[in-house]
Amino acid sequence: MAGIGFELKRVLRQGGVLRFIGVSLAGTAVVAGPWLLSVLGIFLIQRYAGTALAEAPVLFSAVIVYSYAFSLILFSGLHYVFTRQVSDLIYDEKNREAGSALLSFLLVTLVLAAAAGCGLLPMRLQGTVSHPLLFILAAELLFVATCANWVLMSFISLLRSYTGILMTYLAGSFISFLCTFLLGRAWATAGALLGYAAGQWLAAIALYAMTLARFRPSRLFFRSFLSYLSRYRMLFLAGLLYAWATWADKVVFWFAFGTRIGGSWFRVFDSYDIPIFFAILTLVPSLIYFTIETETSFYPRLREFLRCVNSEPFQKIQEKKYAMIRSLGTGLRGQAVLQAIVSAVLILTAPILGPTLFGQGVNVPALQITLGAVFFHSLFLSLLIFLFYLEMYGKAAISTLVFFSVNLAASVGIALLGSTKLLGTSYLAGGIAGDLVAAVFLVRSLKRFDHILFIRAMRS
Description:
Number of helices: 15
Strand content: under 5%
C-alpha cells in the first residue's frame, strides 16, 4: 500500500512551492483526512454554530468522539486483515477482485456497525434533547458512516486522485458544518447531529464512487475474507490491540475522573480529553514523512533483497540486506528528528499555546506530557509497520500487547491513586515500553531475515 508515497514523491521531485504544498495537503488528506477534519469540524461547529447546539452541546461532541473511539476499538483488527487482502490482490494486478473485496468488506462493516451502534447509543434522552428518537437515529447513522470511512481510508491511496480525495473530505466537512447549522435550527441538537452525519455519509459515498472507475466489483468476496482472517489471526490481534493501546488511558480516565452526560452512559473529562486529542493531531508531520520518505526508501531495497535471496551469492544477499537495514535506519532517524522538533517546540510553547487555543482552564502539564508521549507513539507506529512488512505478525501483536498493557495498568494505577497530576504518564510509559519491545524484535528479525526466509521456504 506504499503506492501513495511513491506517487507523492514523484510529484515532489518536480519542485516548486505549490507542488510542495499540494503534496503536503494530499498526504495529510490520505493519512489523516477524516480524523483531522473531524476535529476541525467540531471546533468550527462549536465556535460558529453554537446556537444549533444550545440544547446539549456536550452530548453532541461526545457522540462524535465515542463514534470514532469505538469504531476503532471494535473493528480495527478487521481493517488490518482487509488491508492485507487488498495488498495481495493489487500485487497480483487483480483490480476487479480488489473492488469486490472492498464492496464485501464494506457490507460486512455496515451490518456489524449498525448492530454495534444499537448497543452503544444512549437510549434515555427524554428531558435531555427535544427530539430523542431523531437524535438516536442520527447517532446510529454517524457511527455507521464513521466505520465506513475508516474502511475507505485504507483503500483510497490506490486511486492516485489525491486532489479529488482532498476535495471530497473538504466537501464532506463543509456539508457537515452547513447541515449542522441548518438542521440544528429546525430540530435542535438532534437535527445538528443528523446534519453532521449527512456530511460524513456524503464523503463516504463520494469516495466509494471514486473507486468504481478503477476497481469495479465483479462478485462478493465473503469467504475469501474469512480465509484471510483465519490465516492472519496475529495481524488481526495486532491491529485490535493497537487500537486498544491508543484508547486505553482515555477510556479509564473517562470513567475514573470524568463527568457523566445526562441521558447517556457517556462520560467526558475535558482536563485530559482536550490535551490528548490535540497532542495526537501532532502525529501528522511524522505520518506524512513516513509515507513520502521512510517507506519509499525502504520498500525498493526490501524488494531487491527478496529478489536476490534465491538466486544470488551469499555475499550479494548480505549486501542487499544491509542496504535495506541502513535505509530503514536512515528513514527512522529522519522521522524521529522531525517529530522531536515538532514535539519540542509545542512542549515549550504549551504554556502560551494551550490557553490561547483552549482557554485558561486547559491542563498545560497534561498537554506537555502527552505531546512528549506522541513522539514515542509515532516511532511505535513506524516500527509496527516495518514488522508488518517482514510479516512478523506475532511479534507485532506482542509489541502492541506491551503498549496496551503498560498504558492500561498505569492508567488504572493513576485512577486508583486519584491523582490528576499524572495524566498522560501512562500513555507515555506505554509508548516507551512498546518502542523498546518492537525495536528489539525488528533489529533481531532484520539481522536474521535471510535465515527466516529460508526456514519459511523449507516449511512451505
